[in-house]
């Protein structure tokens, strides 16, 4: 019985690894307010309604406030990452206007594969 359990755990780990590897990386670099990307960078306001293509994206309506925590850089500078209430995700920078800058200097760091997973109610969803 323990051998079957070990095999099931191994299959689960392999499945998780393959899912993470096939997650679409949107950029290898991002800019943040600190090395951990935990500091809010700015407060922005939506200038248009936006509905993203999948669960990694933040949906919003014109006029809603969003807190920006990082911005993809180098190969994809058009996407920023932020939150609105409990919702968190990517959105195009052209869909918002900056209301307030909250940091003095941006730091560029490498992205992680987990940056591109969907998060629903504290659970990761793989694309």
Automatic annotation (TrEMBL):
For this protein, the record's SMART domains field holds: SH3 (SM00326)
Cellular localisation:
Endoplasmic reticulum membrane
Query: Signal sequence: where?
Result: 1-22
Identify the InterPro entries for this entry. cTAGE_MIA/OTOR (IPR051500), SH3-like_dom_sf (IPR036028), SH3_domain (IPR001452)
Bilayer topology annotation:
Single-pass membrane protein
Keyword Coiled coil assigned to the entry: answer is: yes
Give GO cellular component annotations, separated by semicolons.
Answer: endoplasmic reticulum exit site; endoplasmic reticulum membrane
- Location, primary (coarse class): endoplasmic reticulum
Instruction: For this UniProt record, give its keywords in alphabetical order, as a comma-separated list.
Output: Coiled coil, Endoplasmic reticulum, Glycoprotein, SH3 domain, Signal
Tell me where on the tree of life, at the top rank, the source sits. Eukaryota
Q: Do you know which Pfam families this protein is assigned to?
A: SH3_2
Q: Biological process GO annotation list?
A: endoplasmic reticulum to Golgi vesicle-mediated transport; protein secretion; vesicle cargo loading
Q: Which residues form the SH3 domain?
A: 39-101
- What Gene3D superfamilies does the annotation carry? SH3 Domains (2.30.30.40)
Its protein name is MIA2 protein
């Amino acid at each position: 019985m323990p051998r079957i359990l070990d095999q099931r755990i191994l299959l689960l780990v392999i499945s998780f690894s393959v899912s993470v590897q096939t997650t679409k990386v949107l950029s290898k670099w991002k800019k943040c307010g600190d090395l951990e990307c935990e500091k809010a960078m700015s407060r922005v306001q939506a200038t248009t309604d936006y509905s993203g293509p999948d669960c990694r994206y933040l949906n919003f309506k014109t006029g809603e406030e969003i807190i920006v925590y990082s911005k993809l850089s180098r190969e994809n500078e058009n996407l920023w990452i932020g939150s609105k209430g409990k919702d968190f995700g990517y959105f195009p920078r052209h869909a918002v206007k900056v209301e307030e800058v909250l940091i003095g200097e941006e730091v560029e760091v490498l992205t992680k594969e987990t940056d591109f997973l969907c998060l629903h109610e504290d659970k990761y969803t793989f694309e």
